[in-house]
Design goal:
With about 900 residues, this protein is α/β, with parallel strands linked by helices. It has three domains: about 210 residues, Rossmann fold (3-Layer(aba) Sandwich); about 270 residues, Glycoside hydrolase/deacetylase (TIM Barrel, Alpha-Beta Barrel); about 270 residues, Rossmann fold, CATH 3.40.50.300. It contains 29 helices and 30 strands. α25 packs parallel to α28. The termini are far apart. Adenosine-3'-5'-diphosphate (A3P) binds next to α18, α21, α26 and β29. One of its GO terms (biological process) is heparan sulfate proteoglycan biosynthetic process.
C-alpha cells in the first residue's frame, strides 16, 4: 500500500522509506528516522482529526455490529412476565350493582364541591377527577353561605362533597340545617374527606356524629368490603398489599348500625401477632339511619388509587345512579412504525410469535382485541437479516392483525405543501399493501408525530380521503397534549379525529429495566396509577405504541397484559375492543357535542408550531373584532377604523360579501386556513394590527367561545344604539333585501307576534328583537373575555360625533399615530351622515344600504318596544356601571322615558 510510482516518489520519499523493505536491513537507523519524520510532518491538528475519525468509525462499527444485537440478546433472556397477582382472575366477572332508582329524577347530574380554599390540593384533585370523567361540578369555598341548591322543584346537585370532613362537622348551625334539609328532601348524599390534623387524635368523636376517629396513622394492605352496596366500579376480593400513600390516615370506629365500612387497612407497624391484627375502617358509609342523610367518609384524600374508584362509586351511589359512569371501556392499541425501527430494535420472528400469543391472551380478557398495525413500507426489510425475517413473519400472519397506513417514508405530512406529492407518497404505501395482501379498508390512519392532524394541514385530509378513504384518525394534540384529561375529539372534512391516550411507552422505551424513572414507575402506573386511571376515566382508549416496544424484552406486551389483568382484578369494567371506525362512531355517539371543532391558535403551543407548515402564519390573526350587532353603525365604524394607518382590515370575501362571518356559521367548519387567507402577512408593514367586523358575532351562540379559543388576547368592540331603533332599522334592511315574510307583515305585526303565530313569523320576530337584549349577550362575551378587552361604543354618538368616538377608541386600542378624525370625516348634508373626505372638498359615503330613508316608526310600536326592552335596558345599565363604563345617553333617555 505504501509503495509509490517512480514519478511521485521524489515528493514522498520519506514515506516510502518508512514502509519499505529497507527497514529490515537498516532498522536501527530507520526507527528514529521514522519518528523524526512523523514529528515533523504530522502536526497536532492532523493527529486530533485522525483520532476523531478513528473514534467515529469505532463507534459506528461497535453500535452497528456489536452493541444492539448484543444488548437485545441479553434482554431477550430476561423477558418480564406480566403482573398477575390476582386470585380473582380465574373467577367469572359478576354483574356490577345498579345504583339507579327513581330518586335520581329529582336531582341534576352535578356535584357541589366545598373546598377549604381555592388553592387546596385535595380540592384540585377532586375537580380534576370530575373533569376527567366529564362530571359537571361547582366549587364553593367553605365558610361562605351556601349557593342556591334548587331550581324549581329539582335539586341542583346530586351529591355534596366536602374536601374537609371537619369543616362539614363544624359548619354553622344555620347552613348545616339548610343543607341537611336539602339532602333529606332531595335524597342527596354527602361525601367527606378527613384531612390531616395537627394533633393526633385517638378515639375522638366527630362533632355531632356517633363516630370516632383515630388520626395521623400509617397504614398498609387495603381491602374492600364485598358486601358494601356502594361498590360498583370497584371490585372487592383482593388486597392492595404494601404501605398506603401518606402518613396521616384517619380511621373510623362506630357503635351504631348506621355505619358500614367500605374499605379497611392494617396499621403499618403492628407488632401484634397475625391473629390479633384488627382491620381498621378507612372508608365508611353512613346509611343515614339516624338523621336521614346518607354519607360516604374517606380517611384520606385521593392520593391512594383505590380511593379514586371509591369516590366515583360514592357519587354514583349517593346520587341514586344519576352520576353513574358506564362500565364499558373500549381499548385500541396501535402499533405504529411497523418496518420503521432502527436495526437492533426491530422484531424477530419469535417476537411476532409472542405478539400473537399475547394477542390471544388479551382476547380472552378483552373481547374483539386485535393489535392495530401501522406501517411505512419504505423501510420493509431494512433490519438485520434476523429482523428481516421478523418483517416477513408479520406479513405471513397479516390476517391476524388489523392494519392501517402510515406515511410511506414516515415523513411528517405538514412538510408537504402539495397535495399531489402527498398522494404520490401514499400511493406507494398502498401499492405495497396490495402487493403483500395487507388489508386496505380500515378507513383509519395515523400521522407521524401527529403532524397535520391538529393543527389541521388541509392537504393531509384531502390526500387521506382520496387515497385511503380515511374516515378516522387519532391524536394526542387536540386541543393540547397536556393536561391529558382535557383531550377531545372533533370531525373535520368527514374525518373523525379521536383523542388518543398516553400509555407511557415511547419510541425509545425499549426495556423495562431502563424505563424512565425505573421499572417501579411503570408498575405503579399499571397498578392503580396513571395508565390504570386512564382506562377508568375514558370510555374509549386509543393507545399509541411503536414497533420497538415489542422487540427486545417486549415491554408493551408486559404493559398491556398487566394493566388489563389489574383492571379485571380490581374493577367491574367491561373491557372490549373494536376496529377504529366502529370506535369512532361509538365515541361521537357518546360525545356528540365534540363533533364540531374548536380551533386554537397554533402559535400558542410550541408543539403545534413544530408540526405546522412553515408556509403558514399566525402573526396576522386579528387583534380586534368589531362584533356588532347588526344595524348599529358597524359598517361606518369598520370604514373609519380602516382609515387608520396602523389598522388593517381583512381582505374582502367574494363569497360572504363584506363580512367574513367566520365564528358564527359554517365558514368556521372550513377550517383555520380558510380564515387565515383573509389576513395575509404584509410585505411592507408588519406592525399593522389586523381587524375584522362581522355584525352577527354579537348574538351568535357559539361566537364568544370560538373567538376566545383562537383570539384570546383580542380587543372586542360592540356598538349599541336604542334597541327599538335597531329592530326597526333591521326590519327595513331585510325588507329591502326582499325577505318575503317581512314584506308580507307590518313591523308591528312582527314584533307583537305571540307564540301561537306561524313559525316563520315567530322566527322573524326573534331575529328582529333578540339582538337588542344587549346585556344577555354582553354577559356571554364577558364570560370569555376580560372586561378590559371589551369596549362599548355609543352608536348614536358615532353617528353624530364620530371624531370624538374615534378619539376614545384609539386610546382604548393604544395605537399610534393618534389620528384626528375631524380631518378625515365630514358631514354630508345630502346623505345626512359623516362621510370620508376624499381629495379636498369631496366626500365618499357608505352605500345606499346604509342610512336608508324610511317612514318613522309607528307610535304604538315604539311604545310596545319601550316596554319590551325595559328589563333588558335596566340590566344593561347595571352591567355598564358594574364594569365601569359610561351609560350612553340613549339608554338614560329610554330608562327615564319609562320610569
Ligand atoms: P339605517 O340604514 O337604518 O339608517 P350597520 O352598518 O351596522 O348595518 O348599521 C347601519 C346603520 O348605521 C344605518 O342604519 C345608519 O343609521 C347607521 N350609521 C351610523 N353612522 C353612519 C354613517 N356615517 N353613514 C351611514 N350610516 C351610518
Amino acid at each position: 500500500m505504501l509503495r509509490m510510482t517512480g514519478e511521485n516518489r521524489g515528493a514522498r520519499a520519506p514515506l516510502l522509506e518508512c514502509g519499505s523493505g529497507e527497514y529490515s536491513h537498516n532498522h536501527k537507523t530507520l526507527a528514529p528516522r521514522c519518528c523524526f519524520w512523523l514529528a515533523s510532518h504530522v502536526n497536532v491538528r492532523k493527529c486530533v482529526a485522525g483520532v476523531m475519525l478513528l473514534s467515529v468509525l469505532t463507534i459506528l462499527f461497535y453500535s452497528y455490529y456489536v452493541t444492539i444485537p448484543l444488548t437485545s440478546l441479553v434482554w431477550r433472556d430476561r423477558i418480564p412476565r406480566p403482573l398477575t397477582q390476582c386470585s380473582l382472575l380465574a373467577s367469572q366477572q359478576q354483574a356490577a350493582r345498579d345504583h339507579r332508582s327513581d330518586a335520581r329524577l329529582r336531582i341534576d347530574a352535578k356535584v357541589l364541591v366545598i373546598v377549604e380554599s381555592a388553592y387546596s390540593r385535595l380540592g384540585r384533585d377532586i375537580a380534576e377527577l370530575l373533569v376527567a370523567n366529564r362530571i359537571r361540578y361547582k366549587v364553593e369555598v367553605a365558610g361562605k353561605s351556601l349557593p342556591v341548591l334548587t331550581t324549581l322543584d329539582k335539586g341542583r346537585y346530586g351529591v355534596i362533597v366536602f374536601e374537609s370532613l371537619s369543616k362539614y362537622a363544624n359548619m354553622d348551625k344555620w347552613n348545616r340545617e339548610l343543607l341537611d334539609k336539602y339532602c333529606r328532601e332531595y335524597s342527596v348524599g354527602v361525601v367527606g374527606f378527613a384531612t390531616p390534623s395537627e394533633e393526633t387524635l385517638v378515639g375522638a368523636q366527630l362533632k355531632g356524629f356517633p363516630l370516632f376517629m383515630h388520626t395521623n396513622l400509617r397504614l398498609k394492605d387495603a381491602t374492600l368490603n364485598a358486601a358494601s352496596p356502594v361498590l360498583r366500579l370497584a371490585r372487592a376480593g383482593e388486597t392492595a398489599w404494601g404501605a398506603l400513600p401518606g402518613d396521616h390516615w384517619s380511621v373510623f370506629r362506630a357503635n351504631s348500625s348506621t355505619y358500614e365500612p367500605i374499605a379497611w387497612a392494617l396499621r403499618e407497624h403492628d407488632y401484634e401477632t397475625d391473629g390479633e391484627r384488627m382491620p381498621l375502617a378507612t372508608v365508611i358509609q353512613d346509611h343515614g339511619r339516624l338523621d336521614g342523610v346518607q354519607r360516604v367518609l374517606f380517611g384520606s384524600g385521593l392520593q391512594f388509587w383505590l380511593h379514586r374508584l371509591l369516590f366515583l362509586d360514592a357519587l354514583s351511589y349517593l346520587s341514586h345512579g344519576q352520576l353513574s359512569l358506564s362500565l364499558d371501556r373500549w381499548i385500541l392499541v396501535d402499533i405504529d412504525d411497523i418496518f420503521v425501527g432502527e436495526k437492533g430494535t426491530r422484531l424477530h420472528e419469535e417476537d411476532v410469535a409472542a405478539l400473537l400469543t399475547s394477542q390471544a391472551a388479551l382476547q380472552r380478557l378483552v373481547p374483539g382485541f386485535r393489535f392495530n398495525l401501522g406501517y411505512s413500507a419504505k423501510y420493509y426489510h431494512h433490519g438485520t437479516p434476523t429482523e428481516n425475517l421478523g418483517d416477513d413473519a408479520l406479513l405471513k400472519h397479516r390476517e391476524y392483525f388489523n392494519w392501517f397506513c402510515h406515511m410511506w417514508n414516515h415523513q411528517q405530512p405538514h412538510l408537504y405543501n402539495n397535495v399531489s406529492q402527498l398522494e404520490a407518497e401514499m400511493m406507494l404505501n398502498k401499492q405495497f399493501a396490495l402487493e403483500h395482501g395487507i388489508p386496505t379498508n380500515s378507513c383509519y390512519s395515523v400521522s407521524p408525530h401527529h403532524s397535520g392532524v391538529y393543527p389541521v394541514h388541509e392537504p393531509l385530509y384531502e390526500a387521506w380521503r382520496k387515497v385511503w378513504d380515511v374516515k378516522v384518525t387519532s391524536t394526542e394534540e387536540y386541543p393540547h397534549l397536556r393536561p391529558a384529561r382535557l383531550r377531545r375529539g372533533f370531525r373535520h372534512r368527514g374525518v373523525m379525529v379521536l383523542p388518543r391516550q398516553t400509555c407511557g411507552l415511547f419510541t425509545h422505551t425499549l426495556l423495562l429495566e431502563r424505563y424512565p424513572g425505573g421499572r417501579h414507575r411503570l408498575d405503579r402506573s399499571i397498578q392503580g396509577g396513571e395508565l390504570f386511571q386512564t382506562v377508568i376515566n375514558n370510555p374509549i382508549n386509543v393507545f399509541m405504541t411503536h414497533m420497538s416496544n415489542y422487540g427486545n424484552d417486549r415491554l408493551a406486551l408486559y404493559t398491556f397484559e398487566s394493566v388489563v389483568k389489574f383492571l379485571r382484578c380490581w374493577t367491574n369494567v367491561r373491557l372490549a375492543s373494536a376496529p377504529p371506525l366502529a370506535l369512532a362512531e361509538k365515541y361521537f355517539q357518546l360525545r356528540p357535542d365534540e363533533l364540531n371543532p374548536l380551533w386554537g391558535n397554533p402559535c400558542d403551543d410550541i408543539r403545534h408550531r413544530r408540526i405546522w407548515s412553515k408556509s403558514k402564519w399566525c402573526g396576522t390573526l386579528p387583534r380586534l373584532l368589531v362584533i356588532g350587532p347588526q344595524k348599529t353603525g358597524s359598517t361606518a365604524l369598520y370604514t373609519f377604523l380602516a382609515m387608520h394607518p396602523t389598522l388593517k382590515p381583512n381582505l374582502p370575501s367574494p363569497s360572504t360579501y363584506e363580512e367574513l362571518q367566520f365564528f358564527n356559521n359554517n365558514n368556521y367548519l372550513k377550517g383555520l386556513d380558510w380564515y387565515l387567507n383573509f389576513f395575509p402577512p404584509s410585505l411592507t408593514n408588519n406592525s399593522q394590527i389586523t381587524f375584522e367586523k362581522s355584525a352577527t358575532y354579537f348574538d351568535g351562540d357559539l361566537v364568544p367561545r370560538r373567538a376566545h379559543a383562537l383570539l384570546p388576547n383580542a380587543k372586542i368592540i360592540a356598538i349599541l344604539i336604542s334597541p327599538s331603533k335597531r329592530a326597526y332599522s333591521w326590519y327595513q334592511h331585510i325588507r329591502s333585501h326582499g325577505d318575503p315574510i317581512a314584506n308580507n307583515y307590518t313591523f308591528h305585526t312582527i314584533i307583537t307576534a305571540n307564540d301561537s303565530a306561524p313559525k316563520q313569523l315567530r322566527d322573524l320576530r326573534n331575529r328582529c328583537l333578540n339582538p337588542g337584549k344587549y346585556s344577555h349577550y354582553l354577559e356571554r362575551w364577558l364570560s370569555e373575555y376580560s372586561v378590559h378587552q371589551l369596549h362599548v361604543i355609543d352608536g348614536s354618538m358615532l353617528r353624530s360625533e364620530p371624531a370624538v368616538v374615534m378619539n376614545t377608541l384609539q386610546k382604548f386600542l393604544k395605537i399610534s399615530p393618534h389620528i384626528d378624525y375631524n380631518k378625515l370625516l365630514k358631514y354630508d348634508p345630502k346623505k345626512g351622515f359623516f362621510c370620508q373626505v376624499v381629495g379636498g372638498e369631496k366626500t365618499k359615503c357608505l352605500g345606499k344600504s346604509k342610512g336608508r330613508v324610511y317612514p318613522p316608526m309607528e307610535e304604538r310600536s315604539a311604545k310596545f318596544l319601550r316596554r319590551y326592552y325595559t328589563p333588558h335596558n335596566t340590566a344593561l345599565s347595571k352591567l355598564l356601571v358594574r364594569v365601569g363604563r359610561p351609560v350612553p345617553h340613549w339608554l338614560k333617555d329610554e330608562l327615564s322615558a319609562n320610569g
